[in-house]
Specification:
about 180 residues, Arc Repressor Mutant, subunit A, 3-stranded antiparallel β-sheet, 10 helices, globular
Length: about 180
């Protein structure tokens, strides 16, 4: 039993050393890729357990890395928020790859609704910006979401429709797992 415990401790130490060997730039790049939305510099500092100044230097290096015209991705900065996104000039190219003729921005709005499963329209607008009003209209027209008036307020609840589940072949259980992991 003692041998197993020592083996587990050694493996844990190895995993920790491997994590320590990953440089800050790579960690920030991974966070931005997985989040898929703007992340504050402060959050990046907290997640990577690094000083804000080091995070800003790493972001500058990432910007340089993605400044290559041959790269499909770019680092965008808006105030103190950073995101890793597809370059604008490629949106038209990838639109044919998106299901049901949804533009990239509309698909991202749908992804937020899918992750949350049920979200107030006002909260979605805060997350995605005022252009989300148009996205919501398009998603309603294509019957991917449902809209119900909030009982105690002026906003609307947005949730996924049955057509969403059929079109994207995603189960409610899978979305629940994703939603739980985001909390």
């Amino acid at each position: 039993m003692e041998k197993i415990r020592k083996n587990i401790i050694n493996r844990s130490n190895l995993d920790q050393k491997n994590l320590e060997n990953i440089d800050l730039i790579t960690k920030i790049e991974a966070v931005l890729y997985l989040k898929g939305r703007p992340v504050s510099k402060k959050s990046l500092s907290d997640i990577t357990n690094n000083d804000l100044n080091l995070v800003e230097l790493a972001i500058d290096k990432l910007k340089s890395k993605y400044s290559d015209p041959k790269s499909a991705l770019e680092i965008n900065e808006n105030k103190s928020f950073i995101s890793l996104e597809l370059k604008q000039n490629l949106n038209e190219f990838v639109e044919d790859l998106l299901p049901s003729e949804l533009k990239t921005a509309v698909l991202r709005t749908l992804a937020v609704i899918a992750i949350k499963k049920k979200i107030l329209q006002s909260d979605l607008i805060l997350l995605r910006g005022s252009s989300a009003y148009e996205h919501i209209k398009e998603l309603l027209d294509k019957k991917f979401i449902q809209k119900r008036r909030q009982r105690d307020g002026r906003s609307f609840w947005l949730s996924l429709s049955e057509k969403f589940y059929q079109t994207f072949a995603v189960s409610n259980e899978f979305l629940s797992k994703i939603s739980e992991s985001k909390k």
